[in-house]
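Margin note from the TA: students keep mixing up input and output lines. Inputs are the sequences; the output is the structure of the whole complex. Example:
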Amino acid sequence: MIRVIAGRSLESLVVLLLMSLVIYALIGLMPGDPIDLMVQGDPRLTPADAARLKALYGLDRPLLERYGNWLLAALGGEFGYSRLHNQPALAVILPRLGNTCWLMGASFLLSLAIALPIGVWSALRARTGADYAVNLAALAGISLPTFWLALMLITLFAVQLQWLPAGGLQTIGVESVADRARHLVLPVVCLAVTHAGAYTRFMRAAMVEVLRLDFVRAARAKGLSETRVLFAHALPNALAPTVTVVALSFGALFSGALVTETMFAQLGMGKLVYDSIMGNDYNVALVALLLATALTLAANLAADVLYAWLDPRVTFAGRTP
Amino acid sequence: MDRELDGAPLTAPLLELDGLTVAVTVAGRSVTVVDGLAFALGTGETLGLVGESGSGKTMTALAIMRLLPPAARIAGGRVQLAGEDLAALDEGAMRRRRGRRVAMIFQEPITALDPVMTVGNQIAEVLVAHDGLTRRQARAEAMALLDAVGIALPAARLDEYPHRLSGGMRQRIGIAAAIAARPALLIADEPTTALDVTVQAEIVDLLLELQARLGMAILVISHNLGLISELADRIAVIYAGRLVEIGAATDVLAAPAHPYTRGLIAATPRIGGPRGRLATIPGMVPGFAESAVGCRFAPRCTLAFDRCRSEVPALAAAAGGRHAACHLVAAEVGP
């Protein structure tokens, strides 16, 4: 088991390396570079100045050579400077990643806390009115535009009721966990609603599928209590596929949620990636995207490990007889 | 008891079906799939319930267990087990009877076991539920049961998951879980159909051995007359949800009274028998939605006459202590 995980981690590193080339090339191929922006912003710069600046920053070198230089520096722990923030790229990214972890972690847990029980509950009432109602609500959760939901939440809880702040990370000048938490409530709820819809449907579908199987009837034929039939037999079987899908989506969470972050003025990864690409802030965009890739790969690995743990038929090498 | 009288069991009756009727709702319409089934099964006796696919065999078994699918329900009749009507019990009381009074083994040993629970736990949970054993006691008992159903190295097998075992072993696990709480009646629905021929014989031997040791009655359900002839003391043949013939196994197999039973036996291949095409029964089992006037077998019966198409034949005594639902049989024996 440990050896396989180590092997898979090594594979992930190779993927990460390839992705760094792809992302670097994509950003490099985008029209415009920082110097063009500087030229536009300052009419006194002559084309000769621009050429000199490009040579200074190495922007006149071929793409592959630039990538090679970047990679060597990156392997030495040097990820360059943020053009927009005038700070090392990592110093810009890490606090943002911290914010995103809180936001995404909390909304992820909340959406699971909503989705798993409701999914099971709904599966037990498959094709009844209650089940259709849950399905409809889940579909609504999936398809509600995030910006609209965010606006509604702000209007109701921040403007009308004035229970919660409308946005931001904390009240200026106040340093308390409770204050940070109050600022997280609305964005967390907003994100949880959108994710819970999909997770509910996964859970329900998996549970409905399992409840049809022979061993559930066999468990009832043994005279087990309905609780035991459901929670000792049906649920563990239904969890394996659900957990896999959910764990896979977990990685994507860390690339942030641009709309929610923007609506609630949360300084997270989504907004950072967007701003850095729009502002030609290469170094930040590159590292932020690579970080998201790394977390996605880690989540995939975690999904595989979880699946093997939940279902003994899955040998970790991946194939079953 | 005199079996000349009514094809009754040789021992005191344990299970008595009395007009059991099962209806299934299909597309908003209720159709009868088991129609007034009545037979009895004695303590420690084996009754083979025989019929083609779709004849209502499995529905009968599930009705006795009260585990019918959501669209099906018991529409009438009684299921008397040791003097109490299972069909009238509330769900909690019925749950306590399952596994303890009446247990069941299933056709597909591959799908009838929970793939993510160890076989030891799947047996032990029956003992925890019915005998109130602790997990440790139940585990020891489960090991003894594995030994009893002929699984080698039971201590090592306890913690195996089902997918690591062969089909025959899995069926033995299913049997071990079914007999764990020592039920008086074991329902075996096509217990060997999914297995290799050599393994089939082993399972038959195991069932016979366990029956001799534990004294339980077995209701074995199959379309396979070979299996039935090896296991059953008596045979009940059903066609389209109705009982058409019942009697001692040797009598029914040697000299079937009902034309359908005759057709069924003629359609069974025999090793060493004449080669060539097997006999078939023309036509198909009628859909349950088709309205049933008269004998349901009449459309496929080569001997059918007018009365067969208008009047449902009652179960009548035939020669050799058997009973058959056929106008010809009734005429032969006479009023």
